[in-house]
């Protein structure tokens, strides 16, 4: 067994006090880039409620969220994402989550962001945190455009475990090769990955995850004074 440590971070409501997927869709709606703005907001809110209840499937999320990507050219999307980072994401960065990530990086831990939100939305955010590896739900890209479908296994619920194991296997490693493995997450949807690391950390946890953490003796870490999106 190596003495190296592994640190995995969920993104939305864990490192960020908001849901980047929800905020991206809201950003497109309020800037007139998501078709019918009222309908887009309604669907966005419905998906968030399903996610908070632990009832959302990756396919249900993809139909709407990845459909937003498929409706536009990559050139347009890239320009809009720069606006999104400037107006929504960077102003939401807080000191304590950044310090948490920086401590793991400074210690030489192998670090990755592991998020269900698609990689188009989250890749620039992971880079802004300085995390070198992103494991996210990948939108299919063919013929120079997004198709609106998922490529491979979505990084969602049990899929996060699958994707982490695939990534480590590609490095010739497994979870058992680390002296300690951390996963920081706010969501009950992430219980499958929290269960397989040596140091599960319920971070800014939803009430349901906070209850599970108390039952199982998991560490609880609160990094934010408030949350910008609703969470249950």
Automatic annotation (TrEMBL):
InterPro entries tied to this protein: HAD-like_SerB, HAD-like_sf, HAD_hydro_SerB1, HAD_sf
Q: Which domain of life is it from?
A: Bacteria
Q: Which CDD domains match?
A: HAD_PGPPase
Catalytic reaction equation(s): L-histidinol phosphate + H2O = L-histidinol + phosphate
Key word Metal-binding present: yes
**UniProt keyword Nucleus present:** no
Task: List GO molecular-function terms, semicolon-separated.
Answer: histidinol-phosphatase activity; metal ion binding
- Pathway, per record: Amino-acid biosynthesis; L-histidine biosynthesis; L-histidine from 5-phospho-alpha-D-ribose 1-diphosphate: step 8/9
Per the UniProt entry, the Enzyme Commission number(s) are 3.1.3.15
Record's keyword terms, sorted: Hydrolase, Magnesium, Metal-binding
Top-level EC class, please?
A: hydrolase
Matching PANTHER family: PHOSPHATASE RV3661-RELATED, PHOSPHOSERINE PHOSPHATASE
| Family to which the UniProt record says this protein belongs | Belongs to the HAD-like hydrolase superfamily. SerB family.
Q: What does this protein do?
A: Catalyzes the dephosphorylation of histidinol-phosphate to histidinol, the direct precursor of histidine.
What name does this protein carry? Histidinol-phosphatase
Q: Which organism is it from?
A: Bordetella genomosp. 5
């Amino acid at each position: 067994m190596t003495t190296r440590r592994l640190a995995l971070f969920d993104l939305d409501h864990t490192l960020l006090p908001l849901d980047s997927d929800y905020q991206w869709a809201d950003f497109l709606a309020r800037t007139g880039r998501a078709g019918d703005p009222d309908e887009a907001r309604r669907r966005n809110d419905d998906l968030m409620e399903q996610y908070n209840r632990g009832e959302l499937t990756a396919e249900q999320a993809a139909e709407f969220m990845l459909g937003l990507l498929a409706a536009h050219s990559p050139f347009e999307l890239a320009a809009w994402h720069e606006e999104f980072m400037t107006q929504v994401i960077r102003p939401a960065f807080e000191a304590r989550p950044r310090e948490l990530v920086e401590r793991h990086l400074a210690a030489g831990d192998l670090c990755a962001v592991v998020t269900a939100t698609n990689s188009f939305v989250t890749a620039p955010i992971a880079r802004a945190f300085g995390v070198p590896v992103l494991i996210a739900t990948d939108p299919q890209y063919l013929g120079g455009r997004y198709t609106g479908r998922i490529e491979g296994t979505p990084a969602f619920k049990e899929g996060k475990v699958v994707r982490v194991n695939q990534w480590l296997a590609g490095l010739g490693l497994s979870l058992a090769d680390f002296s300690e493995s951390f996963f920081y997450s706010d969501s009950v949807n992430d219980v499958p990955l929290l269960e397989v690391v040596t140091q599960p950390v319920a971070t800014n946890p939803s009430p349901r995850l906070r209850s599970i953490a108390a039952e199982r003796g998991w560490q609880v870490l609160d990094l934010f004074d408030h949350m910008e999106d609703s969470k249950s």
